[in-house]
Design brief:
4 copies of one chain form a homotetramer. With 138 residues, chain A is an alpha+beta fold. In chain A, 41% of the residues lie in helices and 35% in strands. Chain A folds into 2 domains: 37 residues; 80 residues, ACT-like. Chain A, domain 2 (Alpha-Beta Plaits, 2-Layer Sandwich), CATH 3.30.70. In chain A, a hairpin with a 4-residue loop joins β3 and β4. The radius of gyration of chain A is 20 Å and the shape is elongated. Chains C and D meet through β1, α1 and α2 of C and β1, α1 and α2 of D. β1 of chain A pairs antiparallel with β1 of chain B, so a sheet runs across the interface.
């Protein structure tokens, strides 16, 4: 954890009680950890707004019977192999499969790859999840 | 402000520095206020998820030449007059106007009214902003 | 409405049925209008991403007993009077009030004003709703 | 693709031009596909709101030096093994790793698992991406 600081701040008594209710409901035993996670979530939002280095996950649902789709998705991934960390594929039923692509790179680059994958015919849904390399999270 | 509590929590030194950068960038002179606002934003999200009493703002952009639209929007607002606090109307150009409707009531009720307004032909855009009565914010 | 085009597109029969279910649930009698609204919502998102001219609504909940807050909020609004279309104020209870500020300007400018208002002590919640001047919505 | 329907709808000429600009910008060669994807994205949103069967991806960034964390995350995943389809793990640097967990189940169940993973000390960021089994997407 490295060097640890201690921070102290004031808040109205009713706001403290509501913070405690939020924390309990979210299942956090530790209030410091809950506050740190609030801060970290804001940091990740800003990293994506500022196009910093980030980690992203693209989830694609597609029909693997769509002609030529597999080849096109694979080619597109190869073009960007230097930012793709790993890919996981699961067969959902006779028609549908889901592919999860984990990437690390500039936020805008990850976004562009997600757009490039999503637009192919046969890709029924594509969703980008924005996360972090962990470096800026302490 | 009523009774004030003091809360203290630990965080890694680099996380503290990043929190400070966030705060400065958002223009907060006061760190306590920045932390309180992070907590309050989460409280408002939860109030809407739990269908508590809330304040909402509906922004409608519409073409006031659309036949019968004004009458229909007014009728719909009258049906819900007990939750509508105020309405403001601005003429944007020869065709378009914007109407802002401020409401107070159960979150789900406010949402239903927004849906009811948005779907009319001639309403080009309808957006709901979720806020709070202030009671749970300290 | 001006000149009207007619657009035709193919979709799988089950997707058509699900589109119909969505439309009925959202209370649209008219399928064309439902499709146009889907397109318009996407257009508004893009206008904000591209920092085009837009309409925005800022909803502020604040404690009007907070010392000096009213004066500061008023001063800040005067600094930006050329982009503020109208302001509506409602007293919620003895302590809290809500103010809705309707603006028209560049998306980034509206965002900056929202940030500037939100950070003041006594402002318990500030939310920006992104809408449109209607011009790009047909 | 099964049986294919053809749908036709009217829209104002300027709205059509703006739809075309959106489509080109998003890189879709095919307008039908762009419209179908707009509809499908809305369907996935509704499936999550209605707690239907869904596919979700949880991305966790964590410090694998955090004492006991690995064991706790593994235990939690085992408790829910019947909804977990696959897990992928990548080492980001000496301290941080990212784990992507692909799940299939009721939307609320997937959400609860994401909350359960996120709150552990050492988990720096947890994000849930909401997708679909593909069944309702045509």
């Amino acid at each position: 954890m490295g060097e640890v600081a201690r921070l102290s701040f004031s808040l109205e008594q009713p706001l403290l009680e509501r913070l405690e209710a939020l924390r309990r409901e979210a299942g956090y035993a530790n209030r410091s950890e809950f506050l740190r996670d609030l801060i970290r979530a804001r940091l990740v939002d800003r990293a994506w707004e500022l196009n910093q280095e980030a980690v992203g996950t693209i989830t694609l649902v597609y029909d693997h019977h769509a002609r030529g789709l597999n080849a096109r998705l694979t080619a597109l991934q190869h073009d960007h192999h230097h930012v793709i960390l790993a890919t996981t594929h699961v067969h959902l039923d006779h028609h549908h499969c889901v592919e999860v692509i984990l990437l690390r790179g500039r936020a805008a680059h990850i976004r562009a790859i997600a757009d490039g994958l999503r637009r192919h015919k046969g890709v029924l849904h594509g969703e980008l999840s924005m996360s972090s390399t962990g470096k800026e999270l302490g």
